[in-house]
Amino acid sequence: MRLALFQPDIPQNLGANLRLAACLGVAVDIIEPCGFPLTDRALKRTAMDYGENVAISRHSGWSAFRGAQVESGARLILFTTRGSVRLEMHAFQPGDILLFGRESAGVPDAVHAAADSRVAIPLAGGARSLNVSVSAGIALWEALRQTRQLPAG
Question: Do residues 8 and 107 lie in contact, with contact meaning Cβ atoms separated by under 8 Å?
Answer without folding.
Answer: no
